[in-house]
Amino acid sequence: MNTITVKLQNHSYPIYVGEQLLQNPELILSHITGHQVLIVTQANVAQHYLSILKHGLSHLQCNEIILSDGEQAKNITEWQNIINVLLQSGHERTTTLIALGGGVVGDVTGFAAACYQRGVNHIQIPTTLIAQVDSAIGGKTAVNHSHGKNMIGAFHQPQCVITDVNVLKTLPNREFISGLAEIIKYGLICDAEFFAWLENNIEKLLSRDISTLLYAVSHSALQKANIVSQDEKEFGIRSLLNFGHTFGHALETACAYQNIFHGEAVALGMAMAAKLSASLSMISLTEYERIIQLLKKSELLKVQIQLPSASEMLTLMMRDKKVRAGKLNLILLNKIGQAIKVQDIVEAQIASAIESIRTDKLLSVREF
Ligand SMILES: NC(=O)c1ccc[n+]([C@@H]2O[C@H](COP(=O)([O-])OP(=O)(O)OC[C@H]3O[C@@H](n4cnc5c(N)ncnc54)[C@H](O)[C@@H]3O)[C@@H](O)[C@H]2O)c1
Predict the structure, then answer these.
(1) Which terminus of the chain has fewer Cβ atoms in its 10 Å neighbourhood, N or C?
(2) What does the pLDDT look like over 182-222, one tens digit per residue?
(3) What is the spatial distance between Cα 362 and Cα 296, in angstroms, rounded to a whole number?
């Protein structure tokens, strides 16, 4: 088992990455101080892992709540359902919420923990690849509002993150592939050596070879932990994690979160940001080709949808949380392994990069 620490001034915590960790109740019990827990999960996850988790917690008051499935579960009603169960079951301030699931479960549970009785403990047990390498780490919690994604939320760090790579075996293939986008992102923004490792190991990763997965997940978690440790509230370096995301969020919004997964949108967004970096001569054409090839080999450049026009995307990008004084701040690449925040890019150049990826023959249609 690897232990990675998120080092924060007021609240450092471990991320455990390994195999069969759900079968090790001592690990989770060492982070529970009270006599009550509430497990928040979803049916797809519960059918495989809920009883294993509950087994080790049988001496505690253990309640559970099953959220509805999909991004639509990340709403204020599901958040309130969690609060209702906590109140109806008499949970005290010493309670611990346990998020057993992907990013949706993690985000809603974390937000409920941030608010219940002005903040209680929670533990993240991420079960999707995206959650294991990204969303469970760093304390960003939120629910969506009809006016926008993640519009109601808080920074609330977990007591620990328990990452059991074995649970990825039951993850549907498209969900798994979607998670690869965030792994590739770490190589692109801060680790050229890891990017080269991914180029050499992508087939093994796609086949979910356990030792390859262990390395990729641990290394990605380490990169995220390092960045969060330097900039918990995203005043500086943490914004580099948004590489590809401003384009990606615009794609997700244009598609009303239907028919495109977060990682797929981020992958297309990274392709657009790489194209823009190349057209501004920040990266070479060879580097651009390497990026596109890796995204393609990862089966990430397959879409099922008609992509929105460049002007529609630009309008949506201007509504992004990162817009300051009407100016778009974009994260671009100086080279593979080094991202940088760039301001004042001419809109026509952004539109041209979007258009170039949108109409590129490299995009193929995904069959389902
Ligand atoms: N807080 C952050 O820093 C952060 C970062 C990135 C993404 N996010 C958020 O994460 C969310 C996306 O998360 P996601 O991609 O994990 O999707 P998700 O949570 O919707 O999970 C995808 C599907 O997989 C199922 N599932 C989960 N684990 C499984 C397993 N092991 N076996 C079988 N089925 C399983 C879920 O029930 C769900 O149906 C978005 O809302 C996004 O905004 C948050």
Answers:
(1) C
(2) 999 999 999 999 999 999 999 999 999 999 999 999 999 99
(3) 8
